[in-house]
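dumping this here so i dont lose it
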């Protein structure tokens, strides 16, 4: 049978939309029919507001979004590049032993990353020329998946039925499509919720990301382009709820104390929210005619800001392999074959496993009150601060420039030489 689409992406959030834009812009996939299944496509973000949900986008993510035709569509006024990052333990000070200072000046990059609202990234991807020109956006949700020998059938919640050679699950950590495909996960819930809000501070954030490790979990100040800072505070669930409900002045005082007063007096300057934290990793990323990307494949603690960055790398890697399979001498029918999807799984699962392990280990090491571990933490941070090699390792990991990178995550010169 002739499927309705060659590639159907279930979930049109940032990672799903990125996969769609990359696939639509890949000349090797020019003859393929591509669709995104998304119940709530984004609307135009207001110019005078900064949403509560932001991401620290890595250099690799910036390059991937540029390849997708979206980076230039994010207004400069709504993205804040940060050039410094200061990390310290509760028992230390940001400029003393027991702290680490990362600086873009120690790299060949102009900055360490960029803080951008999630909704603006998503909107820019939907507005990218390739997605607008070539991708069908279906405003619906998947209710059932049926896997046939030569296609996957998708029953929609509104009663329609469509088919594709390949379905890609990009529908978040809860991922209904992952469950419908019968793929299991392993992991656990953290005894932490992330409290989020925006604040104004007496002193400038100086385009610096500030992170202090406390006994209950880390607190991070992420610089915003309008001078405010976005707060992500991983703390006990009851405390996170209290921070949402208490008077703004009391919440601001607790935030100021938690960050050690490094930016002076704090004022709440945005809505407040909290969400539970967990680690989840799919035991398999694929089956015949189905693959997982982004949070549908792995959910991580936010302390390193790597969640969506790992997802963009997934999307770029999968699209690259699809292009290789369909390109000169290939076949469109190959996109859903298990042999191809297993290559994607081996590539990204190993990279993500390293990231999940490091992030979980850091959270366990730093989020406790053990005095012996406190001394060990401060010693470790001091050792990293004294070692240029160790600092470069962590910065390259944070910027997404380590490991086996897809072409879209590499520099423009590297991408050009790869196609010579």
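and the seq i came up w/
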């Amino acid at each position: 049978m002739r499927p309705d689409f060659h590639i159907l992406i279930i979930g049109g959030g940032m990672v799903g939309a990125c996969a769609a834009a990359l696939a639509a812009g890949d000349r090797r996939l020019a003859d393929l029919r591509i669709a995104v299944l998304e119940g709530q496509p984004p609307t135009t973000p207001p110019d005078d507001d900064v949403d509560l949900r932001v991401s620290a986008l890595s250099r690799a993510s910036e390059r991937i979004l540029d390849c997708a035709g979206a980076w230039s569509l994010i207004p400069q006024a709504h993205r804040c590049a940060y050039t410094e990052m200061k990390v310290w333990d509760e028992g230390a000070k940001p400029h003393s032993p027991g702290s680490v200072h990362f600086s873009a000046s120690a790299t060949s990059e102009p900055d360490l990353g960029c803080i951008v609202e999630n909704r603006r990234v998503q909107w820019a991807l939907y507005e990218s020329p390739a997605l607008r020109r070539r991708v069908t956006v279906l405003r619906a949700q998947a209710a059932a998946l049926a896997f046939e020998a030569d296609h996957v059938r998708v029953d929609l919640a509104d009663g329609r039925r469509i088919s594709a050679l390949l379905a890609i699950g990009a529908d978040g950590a809860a991922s209904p499509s992952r469950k419908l495909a019968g793929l299991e996960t392993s992991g656990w819930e953290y005894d932490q919720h992330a409290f989020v809000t925006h604040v104004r501070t007496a002193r400038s954030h100086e385009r610096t990301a500030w992170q202090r490790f406390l006994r209950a979990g880390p607190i991070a100040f992420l610089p915003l382009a309008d001078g405010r800072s976005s707060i992500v505070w991983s703390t006990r669930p009851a405390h996170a709820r209290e921070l949402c409900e208490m008077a703004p002045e009391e919440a601001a005082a607790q935030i100021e104390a938690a960050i050690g007063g490094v930016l002076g007096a704090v004022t709440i300057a945005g809505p407040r929210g909290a969400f539970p934290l967990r680690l989840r990793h799919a035991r398999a990323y694929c089956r015949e005619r189905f693959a997982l990307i982004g949070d549908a494949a792995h959910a991580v603690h936010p302390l390193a800001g790597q969640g969506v960055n790992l997802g963009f790398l997934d999307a770029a890697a999968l699209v690259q392999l699809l292009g290789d399979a369909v390109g000169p001498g290939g076949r469109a029918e190959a996109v859903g074959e298990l042999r191809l999807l297993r290559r994607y799984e081996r590539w990204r699962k190993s990279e993500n496993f390293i990231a999940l392990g490091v992030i979980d280990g850091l959270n366990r090491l730093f989020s406790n009150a053990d005095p012996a571990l406190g001394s060990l933490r401060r010693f470790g941070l001091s050792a990293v601060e004294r070692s240029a090699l160790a600092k470069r390792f962590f910065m390259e990991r944070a910027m997404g420039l380590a490991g086996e990178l897809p072409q879209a995550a590499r520099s423009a010169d590297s991408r050009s030489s790869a196609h010579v």
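The longest helix spans residues 338-366.
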